[in-house]
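Table S2 (text version). Query chain:
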Amino acid sequence: MDFGVIKEYLPLYEKAFLLTIKIGWIGILLSLVLGILVAFILFYRIPVLKLIAGAYIELFRNTPLLVQLFFLYFGLPKIGLSISAEWCGALGLGLLGGSYMAEGFRSGLEAIPVSQTESAYSLGMSKGQMFRKVILPQAFSLSIPAIVANVIFLLKETSVFSAISLMDLMFTAKDLIGLYYNTTECLFLLVLFYILMLLPVSIAGSVVEKKARYRMFGV
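Corresponding structure-token output:
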């Protein structure tokens, strides 16, 4: 292990780390919005839209992110739609994540007892009030484990961004290894930065999950 090489490569990895974080979290935010929307469509069984939502989930959950990125980056320009590599990565991650988030949110919605809805109506709440004050908070709390797991999964999936020439962590490691053959040092930095990216999310998710469970169940 040559620590001089590690010190020399560190700025390149820092730059790649920031790019990976930026694109990853844009994609995750998009996946959360899309997942909530699709989950509501499926939960309330909205005609026509539920068929589209179901097809979307099956399509994106059963195809690799790499294939989706190739379609967005190389396929869309063929029909006159061209987007940058960064937005392609964020969009691909958001579409993939949305299909997983939707199922997580839907399971949270379906886990709420019917008695909760009946109690809300008996207290004179409107449908909107019931949804905002009773259904949504509980569904979100119940979905936290799935959300955290999906966030970690999506951040790890950023490793395929190198396929569309994004200078992410994986691209940087592969490029430096190909140029200088310092494999041990490059892989060490790659693992280190992925741990720095994922470990805080895992810890924060565990803390939020415990607080949500205590607030709901007192344990």
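Notes on Table S2: The longest helix spans residues 3-43. The chain has a mean pLDDT of 87.
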